[in-house]
UniProtKB/TrEMBL annotation:
Organism: Sphaerobolus stellatus (strain SS14)
Domain of life assignment: Eukaryota
UniProt-recorded name of the protein: Kinesin light chain
Pfam (any one): TPR_10
Parts forming coiled coils: none
SUPFAM superfamilies: TPR-like
Length: 233
């Protein structure tokens, strides 16, 4: 916290000087504004971050244009802040725009497009719009597999996200199928005791429980508990 406060103090000064010397619309002023917004964000000062991010976005649109990478990044940053404030419709509106533009400019399979797709899916999840989230997450997973490979961390994250959406819709067999795959790969790549592996195990146990497969659920839960105890000690 102390370091963020110091960073904030410096960045406020840099921004003031940049405005005075270079003007409100200079790229370096916008960068200073974005940096200060990020520091507010890391302190959980969402309203302050939002205020600056709105300004950065407005100026980026006016100076650089709607489709410039900096404008799209500014849009994405503001959308994430809206997410943290629980302003889901506002976040969704921006994320839809970012996704449309990135598809048009970068193509469906570009990593930044896939990130935008995953962000929008997350916003749908938080609003309980499970079919919409599922539709996007299926696409993200397919493209991650094709472009990054089955064992890439982003592919495993995509698998876990889609499994979560299946769980929330009560589609237990579909969730189980993905969770078994994610767990096998996580064990092989990250090891038995990695936090992500233990999370995968806990998710699978939960899915077994919800299908009434108590012995399977218990077996995994005992392993998770033993490993977590061993790691903590």
């Amino acid at each position: 916290q102390g370091l963020w406060s110091k960073a904030e103090e410096l960045e406020v000064k840099v921004l003031e000087r940049s405005k005075a010397i270079l003007g409100e619309d200079h790229p370096e002023t916008l960068t200073s504004m974005a940096n200060l917004a990020n520091t507010y964000w890391n302190q959980g000062l969402w309203s302050k971050a939002e205020e600056l991010e709105v300004k950065v976005l407005e100026r980026s649109k006016a100076i650089l244009g709607e489709d410039h990478p900096h404008t799209l990044t500014s849009m994405e940053n503001l959308a994430i802040t809206y997410q943290y404030e629980g302003l889901w419709p506002k976040a969704e509106e921006l994320e839809v725009k970012v996704l449309e533009r990135r598809k048009a400019i970068l193509g469906e399979d570009h990593p930044e497009t896939l990130t935008s797709m995953a962000n929008l899916a997350s916003t749908y999840q938080y609003q309980g719009l499970w079919p919409k989230a599922e539709e996007l997450q299926v696409k993200v997973l397919e493209r991650c597999k094709a472009t990054l490979g089955e064992d890439h961390p982003d592919t495993l994250s995509s698998m876990a996200n889609l499994a979560s959406t299946y769980r929330n819709q009560g589609l237990w067999p579909k969730a189980e199928e993905l969770e078994v795959k994610a767990l096998e790969r996580s064990k092989a790549i990250l090891g038995e005791d990695h936090p992500d592996t233990l999370s995968s195990m806990a998710n699978l146990a939960n899915t077994y429980r919800n299908q009434g497969l108590w012995p399977k659920a218990e077996e995994i839960e005992v392993k998770v508990l033993e490993r977590r105890k061993a790691i903590l000690h």
